[in-house]
Specification:
single chain, 78% helix, globular
């Protein structure tokens, strides 16, 4: 069970559930209303999203056995403690459940889940090996995780879109950093990720303007007249300042452990940004 929970990245799935619960309870309500999180339709929506995400993690590990044996040998699960055929079968079952539940809830939700399943399969099989394409795909899927809640509720608004943009940008930054972290294994299997194609220095030159755009977006949100003082202080202290620290550490980063640290900083920024939904009302 422990190995299976690692395979489906259970902590990441908890973050997905938390993110969608905050969208439902805060962004789509005039005031914070946790009772909306217990609605049957929303619970099934979250279940469908979690199934799709878990299936994506499994198929990614399925295709990455040899690469992970170099980059993260201690974390290899598929082909080691869980055989490849049961892993693929579990991926197919979870994908089917995610799509079927989505279609049962609403056709647009089902189509979003279907698109996510296809993109995750394409990402694992091919797209992740193409410079920047794989990074953008994962960033888009991170944004869709939030947007699908608003699509189901038929109440897509500017605030939800803003958080989707936030998720897209920080996910894109983290995915590029992870490519630098995993460059040794990726290079051994002919992947054409950004750091392999252009090198470490030029990869940083790509990251700097993306991080700058992320910070500019944060400032735009903070200085928007709709936001409250508490929200603004929170975003400046727990999201913007860590992103400045990210740049400072990125300048000096040149080893695998440096980029592992930067990836974790991005996780913290993402979590803090998501929790800020509690202050939107």
């Amino acid at each position: 069970m422990k190995e299976f929970l690692y395979l489906i990245r259970f902590p990441n799935l908890l973050l997905v559930m938390l993110s969608q619960a905050l969208v439902q309870a805060s962004l789509l309500s005039p005031s914070i209303d946790w009772s909306r999180v217990l609605e049957q339709g929303f619970l099934l929506l979250t279940l469908s999203t979690v199934c799709v995400a878990a299936a994506g993690y499994i198929i990614n590990d399925y295709y990455d056995i040899k690469i992970d044996a170099i980059n993260k040998p201690e974390r290899v699960v598929v082909g080691k403690t869980i055989r490849r055929r049961p892993a693929m079968f579990t991926h197919m079952v979870l994908s089917f459940i995610g799509i079927a539940l989505g279609l049962w809830l609403a056709v647009p939700v089902g189509l979003i889940n279907l698109g996510a399943v296809l993109l995750l399969w394409g990402y694992s099989a091919r797209l992740k090996k193409i410079m920047l394409i794989g990074n953008v795909v994962i960033a888009l899927l991170s944004a869709s995780m939030l947007l699908v809640v608003a699509v189901y509720a038929d109440t897509l608004n500017k605030i939800t879109i803003s958080y989707a943009v936030f998720a897209f940008l920080i996910s894109l930054i983290r995915e590029i950093i992870k490519d630098v972290e995993d460059v040794k294994g990726d290079e051994s299997f002919d992947c054409r990720t950004l750091p392999i194609v252009v090198g470490l220095r030029k990869t940083k030159y790509v990251l700097y303007p993306i991080i700058a755009a992320f910070q500019a977006f944060l400032l735009l949100v903070v200085f928007h007249p709709v936001t409250t003082t508490g929200f603004d202080v929170y975003m400046l202290a727990l999201v913007l300042l860590p992103s400045v620290w990210l740049v400072i550490r990125l300048v000096r980063a040149d080893r695998k452990r440096d980029f592992t640290y930067l990836s974790n900083v991005c996780k913290v920024i993402m979590l803090c940004g998501i929790l800020s939904m509690l202050l939107m009302n």
